[in-house]
Q: What sequence folds into this?
């Protein structure tokens, strides 16, 4: 597979393909519950496609079973500039704490940096995401159109000031047309 790269000892990472959709949904249901779509972050994903160049899956090297997924969505900063909403990221429960999540984060963040976005944001556990440089304090001027635990609303500035200089509501990316 030309686009596949080793991720950990036992896994590879490759771009997501159409036929992965069912396995990804099943993995997200297991990791986040079937009610996950009611979360505020999902408002930014409705009728908007994830960024193809930043949608990856992790496969077991031997069984080819899908054991991890990560996607990023485009969002609009209060000043109208684009940003990336990271997530969901999920690792199959029996394969968690084996380094897959950290490697998948580092792999995808490196790719995201090549796409020249000024910032990346997410809603997630600070103790996990702090290690990648995501922090709360740059997000204090940005609000969301729904409830989130504010301590989980985190950001990473690729260009200094790209988040801390914002004031106002995070916006949804224009809907992706369906043909
Ligand atoms: C969160 C998740 C993607 C991490 O992937 P993973 O492959 O299990 O994690 P890794 O093996 O790469 O990293 C393990 C490290 O992260 C820590 N960690 C894992 N999940 C964590 C969390 N929710 N909060 C804080 N630390 C966490 C582990 O304690 C471990 O730390 P250590 O290296 O200091 O021992 C994965 O566990 C998952 O899909 N969980 C279910 C969904 C979820 O709970 N998401 C919450 C985050 S938004």
A:
């Amino acid at each position: 597979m030309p686009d596949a790269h080793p991720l950990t000892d036992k896994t590879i990472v490759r771009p997501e393909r159409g036929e992965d959709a069912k396995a990804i949904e099943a993995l997200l249901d297991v990791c986040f519950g079937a009610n996950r779509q009611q979360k505020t972050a999902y408002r930014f994903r409705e009728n908007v496609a994830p960024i193809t160049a930043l949608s990856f899956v992790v496969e077991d090297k031997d069984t080819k079973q899908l054991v991890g997924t990560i996607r990023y969505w485009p969002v609009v900063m209060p000043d109208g500039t684009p940003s990336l909403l990271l997530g969901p990221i999920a690792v199959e429960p029996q394969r968690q704490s084996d380094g897959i999540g950290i490697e998948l984060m580092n792999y995808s963040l490196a790719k995201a940096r090549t796409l020249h976005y000024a910032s990346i944001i997410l809603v997630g556990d600070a103790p996990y995401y702090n290690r990648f440089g995501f922090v709360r304090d740059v997000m204090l001027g940005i609000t969301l159109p729904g409830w989130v635990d504010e301590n989980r609303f985190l950001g990473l500035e690729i260009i200094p000031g790209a988040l801390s200089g914002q004031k106002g509501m995070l916006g949804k990316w224009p809907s992706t047309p369906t043909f």
The chain is about 15% helix and 30% strand. The chain has a mean pLDDT of 95. The beta strands are 5-8, 11-15, 56-60, 66-76, 82-91, 119-123, 142-143, 153-157, 168-169, 171-172. Residues 5-172 form a domain with the Aminopeptidase fold (CATH 3.40.630.30).
